[in-house]
Amino acid sequence: MDGSEHSKRAVELACDLAQRYRSALHVIHVPQHTGHEKALVLGGATITVPPSPEQLESAGRSVIDAARQILESSGCEAIETEIVGGDPAQRIVQAAEREGADLIVMGRRGLSDFGGLMIGSTSHKVGHLAPCACLTTR
């Protein structure tokens, strides 16, 4: 879950599947810089200031709380959440391996669309590395 509309739809679909198959859900968020960092202009020079670890943690908590709200309002009960740093694709795959996941559900496009065009999307990487089936939503 990255907070994008595509990831919100993925959470809704995952909830539906979890209810149908009486499964637990593990929601993971990997905070990333989105390119919307603060910029300071000093003497004509622009300096980009990345968010602090505390700001990333706070934003991540908001994303996870939004996912939990979607899931609980839809009737899902067995929900685990996690916020971890690092490469999103690698961390998602590691979580799937650790949890023994049967399925990874994720949005096809997230908050870093431009970066995905340049270096490959997270969902594409996860699809190639995952130890289980992957389902992407639009």
Automatic annotation (TrEMBL):
Entries under CDD domains matching the protein: USP-like (cd00293)
**Which family does the similarity line name?**
Belongs to the universal stress protein A family.
Mark the transmembrane ranges: none
Q: List the InterPro entries.
A: Rossmann-like_a/b/a_fold, Universal_stress_UspA, UspA
Lineage of producing organism? Bacteria, Pseudomonadati, Pseudomonadota, Gammaproteobacteria, Salinisphaerales
Q: Where is the UspA domain?
A: 1-137
Lineage: superkingdom: Bacteria
Q: What is this protein called?
A: UspA domain-containing protein
